[in-house]
Amino acid sequence: MDLLWNERFWFPEGVTWEDLRNVDPNVYIPQIEDIGLLSIFIGFVLLIIRFLSERRGTKAGRRVIRHIHTVCNGWLRYEGHQLGVNRDNLVYIFDEILSNPSCSDEPCNDRPIPRRIKCIVNNRSEDALQTQSNAIPVRITQCPAIHSHRSLTPEHSTHSKVVPIIRRTQVINPLKLYTLNCRSVKNKALSVSDHIISNKIDLAALTETWLGTDIDSIVLGDLVPEGYDIYNTPRKMRGGGVALIYNKSISVRLLTSDLTFTQFEHLECAIISQNTKLRLCIIYRPPPSKSNKLCVTTFFEEWSQYLSVHALSPEEIIITGDLNFHLDVQQDTNSQRFIQSLHEHGLKQLVDQPTHVRGHILDVVVIRENSRLLQANPIVDDQYICDSNGIVSCDHRGITSLMKSTKPPRIQKTISIRKYRNIDVGDFEKDIASVLKPTSELGLDGIVDLYHEGVKAIIEKHAPTQTKTITIRPNTKWYSQELHTSKREKRKAERVWRRTNLEIHRQIYREKCLLNSKLLFRSKQDYYSTSILECGNDTKRLFKLTGKLLGNNTDVILPTSDNDCDLANRFGNYFTGKIQTIIETLQVQNSETGTSSNILWADVKYSGASLTQFYPASCDEIRKLIMKSPSKSCDLDPLPTHMLKQSIDEFVPIITAMVNKLSVRRSSQEVLNRRQ
User: What H or E segment, with its residue span, contains residue 398?
Assistant: First the structure.
């Protein structure tokens, strides 16, 4: 007998309930000849009906969610529940929900017929779903387009079991924005920098930086981690100021405007990262007082003008900073007026937790009302950023916002290295002795070429050049094992506090943060003290170290050029022309005073004793001079100085020959010139 699956029951093909009531064994079941067999058949059918009509549980119980195996179609209307299948039970296997076309009452013959779910789950409430894991295993496939012979609409009963394809909306490695009112970064720059590095923050919007003096370069050296840069808008007077610290792997461009505002400070930047383009606005509004003579009414006039300019930008927009309005107090007229101004421009404020230690919401994160830029509401958290004395001097909490944009890859750099440590000293000295054999017939140029080319070939043989790509990471040189242990204990205490949410655990976490801050400042102080002592009499190394400590930028930025040779010639012509200009200026001055124009070329006659005999230098003298000299090297040296000293016996003969050739030739030429 052919059976057809119809909803939840097995029926003989073409048979309905009315047919079963008037069943004729001679027509439908010719094999049945007596009432006993007919009773057995009807009982079997009723057993199947009962089995299929009941929802059966699993071995673990009826409340256990069973796995779903289904094929689905993506064009149907998305609903929270599909016949007991809650959307939270489906694994997000893609990136976003498929766009659904508008449903209408017109037939949709060209649309594929959806398949049914063979196994469903219990229709639980939303509250129950919040307490259980959403990662229920679900196998979802999409069936090919099978056209129906009937006209179907999305509201048709056969569509009740169709599950839409859901795409993943969470970014695995999202771009991270951090907002903080520092109340002066001068005494906590190192703590802020360490927080940026430890939490892998990409954009740090800082308000009330108190920067702008001549000594702030030292603060910026501590504040900006390696691999980051800063845009800073200081206040002309004391206090205030806004800044943005950003990862160099993100394209950030400072925006300028002709508009000026007197009631608040602002900084705007255009940010491009991966496929995200947005405008970031950092705002700081000081609280009105008699000294600053600020007015709330004037602020809202300027604020409305500011929003009118930036709300019309085509890209996404984020406005963050400290507005100093008690947004948690609904009865406050200024707060209501501020929220109303946002609604008038299609914006909304997302921060819903206190950002100040006194329990008020003063800092904001504002986006468009229909924006999907952020994954969720911003997270307000207190990281206990301390000063050098381990005292929490910041009265605001930080705000972390996760964007629906993947972090850009870290900046990579290609370098060329030679592994000198892997050189076999014995074989290296043998090659040097066999190649560097100067003869008396060679002149000075020949000896120099022999030394340079010979050493270069031997080095390439024993330590060939290797190209390596490294990733630039914002690491600190004073990061010690003691500091690593302290950070690990702090993170452990933080996890305990967040799991229990007890006050005692919060206090323990706070103490760990204070100890870590003290250790951070002490580690840096010890590192630089040791480094300065190691410099000794090396003034070049000392100036380089102090320049980095003071925040001086040592990056060399060359002009743009398509050809390196042309760029080098431009440099040479510049300095040659500069020297020629100085000479011409001196000649003009000499002509005006009546002095001979050839004074620059005039030579003073030597009146001392004549040196007529020169003795060549010995190998022992050259060896002593080389060993006394510091082990410094230049990029143009064919061999590092420390390796030359290590194999000094093989290099002394050819170096002595060069010195004697150079000295004797120059001295002889000078004697001839004197005699003339």
Answer: strand 398-406
pLDDT at residue 480 above 70?
Answer: yes
In whole angstroms, give the CA distance from residue 479 to residue 524: 8
Q: Nearest Cα to 313, choosing from 350, 355, 348, 278?
A: 278
Task: Name the H helices within 473-611.
Answer: 481-500, 503-535, 539-549, 564-593
Neighbouring C-beta atoms of residue 147, cutoff 10 Å = 9
User: What letters, b where the CB count within 10 A reaches 16 and e where it falls short, cover 606-630?
Assistant: eeeeeeeeeeebeeeebbeeeeeee
Model pLDDT for residues 454-466, shown as the tens digit of each residue: 999 999 999 999 9
The predicted pLDDT at position 601 comes to 55
Task: Report the distance separating Cα 104 and Cα 106, nearest Å.
Answer: 5
| Strand duo 174-181 + 138-142: pairing | unpaired
DSSP 26-39: TTT-TT--SHHHHH
Alpha carbons 300 and 261: distance in angstroms, whole number = 11
pLDDT at 156 over 80: no
CB 365 within 8 A of CB 350: yes
Contact 352/361 with Cβ under 8 angstroms? yes
Nearest-angstrom CA–CA distance, 242 and 209: 6
Task: Decide the pairing of beta strands 363-368 and 347-349.
Answer: antiparallel
What does the block give as tokens for 328? 């948690």
pLDDT band at 603 (very low <50, low <70, confident <90, very high): low
What average pLDDT does this structure show over 284-297? 90
364, two tokens = 């904001």
Name the phi and psi angles at 416, rounded to 5: -115, 130
Residue 472 identity = I
Classify strands 412-417 and 363-368 as parallel, antiparallel or unpaired: unpaired
Most confident among 6-10, 283-287, 580-584, 612-616 (mean pLDDT): 283-287
| pLDDT at residue 181, as a whole number | 94
Among the listed residues 202, 200, 197, the one whose alpha carbon sits nearest the alpha carbon of residue 244: 202
How many helical (H) and strand (E) elements, i.e. helices and strands, does the chain have? 16, 20
Band (pLDDT 50/70/90 cuts) for residue 307 is very high
pLDDT number for residue 145: 40
Please give the model's pTM, rounded to 2 decimal places. Answer: 0.63
> CA 181 to CA 395: how far, in whole Å?
8
Beta bridge partners of 204: 178, 245
Using CA atoms, how far apart are residues 128 and 140, in angstroms rounded to an integer? 24
Q: Indicate the helix (H) or strand (E) that contains 59.
A: none
3-state secondary structure 95-124: CCCCCCCCCCCCCCCCCCCCCCCCCCCCCC
Above 80 in pLDDT, residue 335? Answer: yes
Kindly give the pairing relationship between strand 85-86 and strand 228-233.
Answer: unpaired
DSSP string, 158-211: GGTT-----B----SSEEEEEEEE-S-STTTHHHHHHHHHHTT-SEEEEE----
Domains and CATH numbers, the chain: 3-53 (no CATH), 174-406 (3.60.10.10), 481-549 (no CATH)
% of the chain beyond a pLDDT of 70: 71
| Mean pLDDT along residues 179-190 | 91
Give 588's contacts (C-beta < 8 A, 6+ positions apart). none
SS3 540: helix
| pLDDT tier, 555 (very low <50, low <70, confident <90, very high otherwise) | low
Top-confidence range, 6-20, 324-338, 529-543, 658-672: 324-338
Specify the higher pLDDT residue, 109 or 318.
318
245 burial level (CB within 10 Å; 0-12, 13-18, 19+): buried
